[in-house]
Amino acid sequence: MGAIASGGVRVLNTEVINILRIPNDLIDAVARQEQKEIDRRERQYRDGRPTPDIRGRIVILVDDGLATGATMCAAVAAVRHYRPARLIVAVPTAAPETCMELQAEADEVVCATTPESFHAVGLWYDDFTQVTDEEVYELLAQAARLPYTTVSAGDAPAPRY
User: Fold this and answer.
1) Domain count, the chain
2) 10 Å Cβ neighbour count for 18?
3) The pTM is what?
4) Using CA of residue 106, residue 111, residue 114, residue 120, what is the dihedral sign?
5) Predicted local confidence at residue 82, as pLDDT
6) Mean pLDDT of the chain
7) Cα separation, 10 vs 3, whole angstroms
8) Is residue 152 part of a domain?
9) Considering only CA atoms, which of 40, 50, 39, 33 is closest in space to residue 7?
10) Reduced to 3 states, what is the DSSP secondary structure of residue 60?
11) What is the pLDDT of residues 15-62, one digit of tens each?
């Protein structure tokens, strides 16, 4: 019926809500519960590290694929709050209509494959095992220890098509 993200972002699928006649109080209750989970994961994954300063930077949001796009729309809205110079969505597979719809939300959308008969993200993987909290935590901890270089939007090369 939709998706939420940090900063109170809420993206609702009104068509689904209307067809299923989902009451507003149920939507609010589910959103409150899911917000608790987002808060828990942010605390765990950040491990005391502050929210990265992305203002004026190029941000690439990556997902394993897009079916309805609600989660990515919520992520784009949440990241836009921090004023990146450029916001790019990149996925290996997506429903064609979802890829097109996201072009109105992000500065650039890269969908490597957009099969007409999409059905579900997991169908396009040999192994679609979910990543555990522990794996995410460890990968983020490893990344935090790596030296990195930042590039501002003014220094970045122009995209090539």
Assistant:
1) 1
2) 9
3) 0.82
4) negative
5) 94
6) 90
7) 6
8) no
9) 39
10) strand
11) 999 999 999 999 999 999 999 999 999 999 888 888 889 999 999 999
As a whole number of angstroms, the distance between CA 4 and CA 135 comes to 23
Q: Are 11 and 27 in contact (CB under 8 A)?
A: no
> CB neighbours of 132 closer than 8 A, spacing ≥ 6?
none
> Can you give the CATH number for the domain in which 55 is found?
3.40.50.2020
Beta partners for 62?
Answer: 90
Amino acid present at 149: T
- Tell how strand 58-62 and strand 9-12 pair up: unpaired
Q: Which two tokens stand for residue 124?
A: 């396009």
Average pLDDT over residues 121-141: 93
Residue 160 clears pLDDT 60, i.e. is over it: no
Q: What's the N-to-C CA distance of the chain in angstroms?
A: 35
Quick check: 127 pLDDT over 50?
A: yes
Q: In the 8-state DSSP scheme, what is residue 57?
A: B
Q: Where are the beta strands (DSSP E) in 77-145?
A: 86-93, 108-113
Domain holding 110, by residue range, is 2-145
Tell whether 160 is covered by a domain.
no
Residue 159 lies in a domain: no
At residue 159 the predicted structure's pLDDT band, cuts being 50, 70 and 90, is very low
